[in-house]
Amino acid sequence: MVLDHEDLDLMNFVDKEKLSAPIKSTADKFQLVPEFLKVRGLVKQHLDSFNYFINVGIKKIVRENSRITSTLDPSIYLWSFKDVYVGEPSILNVGSAEVISPHMCRLADMTYAAPIYVNIEYVHGIHGKTTTTSAKDKVVIGRMPIMLRSCRCVLHGKDEEELARLGECPLDPGGYFVIEGTEKVFLIQEQLSKNRIIIDSDKKGNINASVTSSSETTKSKTVIQIEKEKIYLYLHQFVKKIPIIIVLKAMGMESDQEIVQMVGRDPRFSASLLPSMEASIECISEGVNTRQQALDYLEAKLVGSTSFTTSLWQSRDHRMDHLKRWMICFYPAKLNMKDGRALYILCELLLAHVPVRDDNYRQKCFYVGVMLRRMIEAMLNKDSMDDKDYVGNKRLELSGQLISLLFEDLFKTMTTDTIKKVDAILQKLNQATRFDFSQCLTGEKNHNISFGLERTLSTGNFDIKRFRMQRKGMTQVLTRLSFIGSLGSITKISPQFEKSRKVSGPRSLQPSQWGMLCPCDTPEGESCGLVKNLALMTHVTTDQEEGPLVAMCFKLGVTDLEVSSAEELHTPDSFLVILNGLILGKHRRPHYFANSLRRLRRAGKIGKFVSVFINEKQHCVYVASDGGRVCRPLVIAENGESRVKQHHMKELKDGVRTFDDFIREGLIEYLDVNEENNALIALYESEAMKDVTHIEIEPFTILGVVAGLIPYPHHNQSPRNTYQCAMGKQAMGNIAYNQAIKPDGLFAFTYWCWIR
């Protein structure tokens, strides 16, 4: 290639040193803020959560409950779900499906929903004679309300001209539902982290360790508490508290020496365990010494354990059916033994997220050992207690996770009702009567899923007894008084506490809220400090697959606990590696392990929202890829200099580079609240020292979308900013391009009229 004189002159004109120099001011990188909002957006987390449920979550729920068997003859009368998927939004019109748009649903007071299809394999034939197996595709089991701008919405991927043709505003972000013609939005729900150990104390000052376990099949809560220096297990399935030593013996850890080694060889730990050991010795007089005796002891303490064996095989409850299938699969030799239910509770309900493979409870024993050690440390040092108001100990439940819980309950209820219908049909059948089980799933009378989803989203009242979930006001009508008001309602966070509680801790500003939650946008009155809003550049994560990440951790040198002894669990020269609340193993070089994972994340080899946090006090490395974590982007710094150079920003302004390219090339990365504890973040480039690891993109992004419109907020008193957040949502103006054709009942417009 030969360069002419003009090209040579242009190369000499370009200041290479200036372009390769790091950016030196906040104004130079301001363009990153609108580019982030294009990629992530203010409601992107709602869309990601709903898309994950539609594409992945709903398939997991159906797969775990795919096989439906009649209790009268389980060997013959059955059918199973092979696949499930959600179609495009449509309604039946004279026998054919007609595609609908959100604007049509608003005008006609309809629900913007799509059919849920399943492919089933079922049995049909003549009762008492030969039966045949057939398959049927696209069986409708209900209708799923569709979130606007999600992957199943007709607006997805449309340009401005196509959106205008469908009667929609191009600036409308979506993230809400149309239920019976009304726009409904899910409030983000604030909850304590699932599958995490939380050390706390009750009103009497008794220290406890609680874990709210959540797996694809089971959800339960396990509490271990210290009372009068003795340690007990609290589980809903037991009528009274159980000494923790007996629970460990029932899981196969019969040696007291091994239990002490598992907690730690420090004399303070063994002295704290001594009263619990003495309590177990008292139980020896009742015959509790071996694993079998411990299981017998647990069986006697179960709720309704007297007639359990007799009632188990006569019950048609869905939980008893699950237990029967579990016993047949895993413990066929123990079907007639009285310790079957105790084994089931230890395996499936105690720390439900910790798996048990081949009757090996060692991993659960180690998890209990970590809980005991954390409790004793908190008893010896009150600073080891967990702060429930710390943002890193919380998760935000988005619309996809909430609909997933609701769908799981409705789907299991549908299968239970269907089994009852099938049993009733089989009991009345004559020898010459033909049967077809697929008929029990079709028809409007069987669409309880449609009615349940629509009713719950319309009223906002979640009453799921299966998961002990009773909440009100989960959904609200989307505020349309102003454009900024609608954005504020979509980013609103609902508290886990009642608003009438007179507590100061949850209402106070937390240092961990910096950059994650808006410090100004909160209501006045009893909701002050409890109802919050997301900050401008906050993103709420969605679940990611754990399999590749687990394999990567083991390749980086994590030692599996299966080959470790109880004494090696808490050796001072190694750290525990915990992935999403599950103990993977140990690592002797925690900083090397954490830095390796961070380099892989910056190189795009693992998910960009994976978090790695080293807790020096607990001797643990926490790796997180679960959903509901709040995180935000930060510029990576090396030796006090930003990785983002002038030429990167020039390419961004020219349209050659996007925000995702900054993430992909390792110039910017997402950090959650926990990983920020391992980082040193500078506010401005001029303040970056040699040991600074990250630099803020724009300091004002600690504010939310509403508070960010306040002129010079740093010159105001703090209450003034809070007042303006409430009044800014009531400002009159144009709410959307399609406001002239919207059927809303309340509008507030400002007209400028010229009088001649």
Short summary:
The protein is α+β, with helices and mostly antiparallel strands and 756 residues long. The protein is globular and about 90 Å long. Strand 13 and strand 14 (242-243) form a beta hairpin.
Describe the structure.
Residues 706-744 form the DNA-directed RNA polymerase subunit 2 hybrid-binding domain. Component of the RNA polymerase III (Pol III) complex consisting of 17 subunits. Residues 194-397, 476-540, 577-638, 659-689 form the RNA polymerase Rpb2 domain. Keywords: DNA-directed RNA polymerase, Nucleotidyltransferase, Transcription, Transferase. Residues 41-432 form the RNA polymerase beta subunit protrusion domain. The protein has 756 residues and is an alpha+beta fold. Among the domains are: 44-192 and 395-477, Rna Polymerase Beta Subunit, Chain: C,domain 2 (Alpha-Beta Complex), CATH 3.90.1100.10; 198-352, RNA polymerase Rpb2, domain 2 (Dna-directed Rna Polymerase Ii 140kd Polypeptide, Chain: B, domain 3), CATH 3.90.1110.10. 33% of the residues lie in helices and 21% in strands. The protein contains 23 helices and 32 strands. The strands form eight sheets. Strands 22, 28, 29, 30, 31 and 32 form a six-stranded mixed sheet that branches. Strands 1, 2, 5, 6 and 16 form a five-stranded antiparallel sheet that branches. The protein has a five-stranded antiparallel sheet with strand order 10-11-12-13-14. Helix 10 (291-300) crosses helix 13. The protein is globular. The model is unreliable at 306-337 (pLDDT under 50).
